[in-house]
Amino acid sequence: MENNNNERNRETSDNRTTDWNIGELIIRLIVTAIVIGIAAFLTPGFSIDNLWSLIMAAIVIAVLDYLIQKFTGVNASPFGRGITGFIVAAIILYATKFIVPGFNISLWGAIIGALVIGIIDVIIPGRAM
Predict the structure, then answer these.
(1) pLDDT above 70 for 70
(2) Dihedral sign, CA of 109, 63, 55, 19?
(3) Where are the chain's structural domains?
(4) If I label 114, which of 42, 52, 74, 124 is the partner at 20 to 30 A Cα–Cα?
């Protein structure tokens, strides 16, 4: 009887770690927007026209990251995931330019931006991508 309760508690705690709540999602979007704004400021070939473009880009990047992670299992964090995470992060940044108006990035800007986001992601607490 006690063994079944332990298994049930373990399953519940495992589900909590994989499920997203709305607060966590909002914090992740805010951190992503801050990191993208800093990266756009520091990266040549990467610009964002206004605040709405920044917010929309943060949403699109978060959704693309979630979908890629869900279907392929690849986490798009430039650091800590090796070359695959770096390449996926650059692809997500470059693809966002086709979805969000006012989000302008060149191919080299996406590559350098992924590097800058990786560095900022190490400094700022939270998970940006």
Answers:
(1) yes
(2) negative
(3) 21-123
(4) 52
